[in-house]
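[Q] Does anyone have a clean structure-token version of this?
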Amino acid sequence: MPSDAQVFIIDDDAAMRDSLEFLLGISGFAVRSFEAAAQFLSAAPHLGFGCLVTDIRMPQIDGIELLKRLNAAGVKLPAIVMTGHGDVPLAVEAMKLGAIDVLEKPFEDERLLRALRTALDRGADARDLPSAAEGLDARLASLSPRERQVMQALVSGRANTAIARECDISPRAVEVYRASVMAKMQAADLSDLARLAMRSGALGG
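[A] Here you go.
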């Protein structure tokens, strides 16, 4: 991890900012926090290298709009997006905009720390990406056509009952396929599944 790397936290929830600042501070990260995306955008041109950790739902400028504006401005910072339950479609959109990871709240501290280290070291780890991609391809290939259909419906945010109607199967069968998809893709939660599906190309561009 570069010695001058910083973590930029953007969240309108003061308690969440304080919690993240404490966790990252004792874990050895240099941290700057912002209560609004507009505040961060004003400071962005003067900030050094680092990783952005932003909530997806914020007033005025949300996490999706923030990523769009950074892309338009040519600001290249790795981004980790935090989502709430039921934000899977937004998580997919964040991945399409370049977010390298999506964490569904509540998430384990170690998962965030791992994601940050990966983000900040991604240049040094670039040579490992082909083998990682091959492993993901193998996971995707292990899915049956029905499992892949269920996965695509899940990461589109559809409920089990809607998936059952669409696939002409019972809600119980959807639960079975869902559990199988999560296990085969080695996904921790639906946001993680969305991230893996995006990286594998299963959702298209």
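[Q] Thanks! Anything notable?
[A] Residues 36 and 99 are 18 Å apart (CA to CA).
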